[in-house]
Amino acid sequence: MRASLFLSALSVSSVMAAPLLPEINAHSAPADSLKKISEYFNLLAVKIQQSKFESAVPTCDLSKVVMPQAPSPLPPPSFGLSLRHVALGRGTQNYTCDPSTPTAAPVANGAVASLFNASCIVSAYPDIGAMLSTVSLDFNLSDLASIASSVASALPFPPSFLKQTLAPTSGMAVSGAHYFTNASTPFFNMDASQWKIGEAPCAKNNSTPAPEAAPRGQQGEKAVAWLKLITRPGATGGLQEVYRVETAGGSAPETCEGMPEHFEVQYAAQYWFYGN
Ligand SMILES: *[C@@H]1O[C@H](CO)[C@@H](O)[C@H](O)[C@H]1NC(C)=O
Ligand SMILES: *[C@@H]1O[C@H](CO)[C@@H](O)[C@H](O)[C@H]1NC(C)=O
Ligand SMILES: *[C@@H]1O[C@H](CO)[C@@H](O)[C@H](O)[C@H]1NC(C)=O
Ligand SMILES: *[C@@H]1O[C@H](CO)[C@@H](O)[C@H](O)[C@H]1NC(C)=O
Ligand SMILES: *[C@@H]1O[C@H](CO)[C@@H](O)[C@H](O)[C@H]1NC(C)=O
């Protein structure tokens, strides 16, 4: 029933030529997320339609992109650095709890995320870029993959550039992986992809709360903070500073009451990489 809500929203879009009805396997996603994802795909369809009337392929010019700012802004990138890459991160924030102290707050215990190349999207289509975190968080990765392939077959010949954006995290190309090498070292490995952006062991430099209206997570939890990280010795590719912005979900409950010793909370975020 919820899936049919999504399908009707997709098919009433005036820009969709003779849509096939894709089969969506959308499990437990709340109805609200189906509305959001259909808005997302409708916006993509509009861009595809518009792009047919433009002779030039949109450029992916990172020099003109403006990083989103929280109400209490993080310190800006250091003088002389330029934006090298923007990735959509989709994964989990991990936490631990001591079962003997249920009133204590959970302790952050790293994160694991896949990084998807969002450089072109945020530079050419900032309005789509702004929707990526929330749309990707509402579905688990396996669901997103099936949604992407269904919608891809329903869209009339999207230009290859936009095809890559069909579904956040499954139509988009992987640019790397994010994990922790120890409790205080978030690490970004972005050398395996075709872009060879570099590797960045980092340390936290600054933190600011996500905007009040930031997308909540799968369990209704708040969005994790926005961060500024600085690379530690050993970074490659000239990478120097990394920002986590546009977060969605990922926070722990206030206390450990009823929580297991180790647990994960699904999150999404954008990572902005600056270098020289
Ligand atoms: C995502 O996966 C988790 C764990 O496998 C599950 O508990 C949750 O309900 C799933 N969420 C959605 C939106 O399908
Ligand atoms: C992937 O990332 C690189 C480096 O930021 C960028 O030059 C390229 O345009 C990106 N490609 C897409 C499709 O976003
Ligand atoms: C954190 O989450 C990842 C991804 O599911 C998992 O592989 C890893 O074991 C977790 N780490 C801890 C310490 O629980
Ligand atoms: C974590 O790793 C970083 C980078 O290798 C290192 O500088 C730091 O001392 C380590 N911290 C701990 C507590 O081991
Ligand atoms: C953050 O970076 C600035 C500039 O490099 C530095 O002066 C400051 O001490 C750093 N703060 C922390 C908490 O690391």
UniProtKB/TrEMBL annotation:
Pfam families found in the cross-reference section: DUF3455
Keywords on record: Signal
InterPro entries for this protein: DUF3455
Endpoints of the signal sequence: 1-17
Protein's recorded name: Malate dehydrogenase
Protein's organism: Neurospora hispaniola
